[in-house]
Structures are given as C-alpha cells and as structure tokens.
Amino acid sequence: MNQKQRLEQIKKWLSIYYKMSLEEIMNQFQVSRDTARRDLVKLEEDGEIVRVKGGAILPAHRYQITHYHERDMSRLKEKIAHKACSFIHDQETLLLDTSTTVELTARYIENSGLKVVTNSVDIINVLSGRSDIALFLAGGKFNPYNRNFTGPQTAESISKYSVDKLFIGACGIGLEGLTSPDEDEAYVKKAMIKAARQVILLTDHTKFQKNFFHLVCGLPDIDVIITDRAPAETLYRKLKELDIEVIIADKD
C-alpha cells in the first residue's frame, strides 16, 4: 500500500473514531514509526488532521461538521454489531463479509471455538489475537482501498467452505434485493450467500432503497436483517411477506 492509499484509510478511520494513534497506524498498515509520522505530517500539511502527542485527531472545524452525524452513525453501527453477536454461539462456523459494521461485530465477539472465514484483512487483524478462533482468509485480487480480496479467485476460495452463518454488509437494498456498484464485490457476496446456511444482513437505514448496477441476490436469499431503523413501508411489507426477520437494534 502506497502513502496515498494509507492517507485515505487514515482519514476514513478518523471520520469514524476521530482520533488515531501512531501505534494503530503502525499495526494497521504494517509500517514503521517513522513512516507513520510522515503520513501524519503530510495530512497535517494538507489541513486534514491535527497532530497530538502519540497520534492525530480531526481539526476543530471538521470535527464540528462531522462529529455529531458520524458519532451517531458509529453508535448505531455499534448497536447493530452488538445485536449481531447475539446470533453467534460457541463452536459455530462463520463467514464475515468486508463491512465496517461486520468488522465491529468481529471486535465484540466473545464466543470461543469458532471457525471464521473472511476476505477482509482488517477482520483478520481484529481476530488474529484470539487463540480460541480458527481463521481462514479467502484470497484473490487485493483491493487496497477496502483492504480485502475480491474477484473470481476469492469467490472460488469461499465456495470450498460450508458455514453456519454469514454476516454480510450492504451497499444497497431494495425491492429487487441486494445490489452493489462493484462487479467483483457482487461476485464474492454471491459466493458467500451460497456457502452459508443462514444469511444475516447488517445494514444501517441509509442503505435502504438504494439500487446499484450489480445484483447480489434477491430478498428471499436473506434470512435476517439487523438495522437501526425500519425501511419504508413498501419494502418493510415485502420483507414481512417473505418471512424475513427484521430486527431494529436501536430500540434496545
């Protein structure tokens, strides 16, 4: 990963968590302390961050603009992730999609004896310290922006597994089903759905009624949706007709 790509990832992290330490940069991108410092110097020169002892934070003007919305979205995703963890039981086999909400779910897993398959480098990093969880990485073409593997090779790798549950993220979901703007991503998500006995979609309300070019699956392929707010009446009624369980995590 080059510096430009790292800087984008650092800004993405800050938009959610508002601060990032040098150690987190070093661990996240496998770079030296000097490289991490140079990245922060560059971001500060561009007015993107304010350097503080041990790391960086958002500058005051950007913090005021993004803080409340992003903080609320982060909290909502955390609620979705916590609810998702209630579906996980010891000794199960899981497939974890590349998604910020799915990654949060991985952070909150307390169960043991799990076997976890994922195409996400970040999820591998999150769970790599868990000696009680067996990890399997579905490789293929590496996407440096999303820090994951996609494409036919990844889909083929996933097709070799049969798992109890899939936790999958959404780019868009509407009456026609789950859609994605990226062909390779859609290809991998299809393979994930085929490999799982239960498909659990984790999505915030902003993804409802969004439609993209590549169809991932129809609504009948989804078993459970965990979200922060119910979708519009037409879509909600269709989900109920299909006996898809819709769980509103923000009600807890």
From TrEMBL:
Protein name: DeoR/GlpR family transcriptional regulator of sugar metabolism
UniProtKB keywords: DNA-binding, Transcription, Transcription regulation
Species classification: Bacteria, Bacillati, Bacillota, Bacilli, Bacillales
Keyword NADP: no
Coiled-coil region list: none
Gene3D superfamilies cross-referenced by the UniProt entry: 3.40.50.1360, Winged helix-like DNA-binding domain superfamily/Winged helix DNA-binding domain
Residue ranges constituting the HTH deoR-type domain according to the UniProt record: 3-58
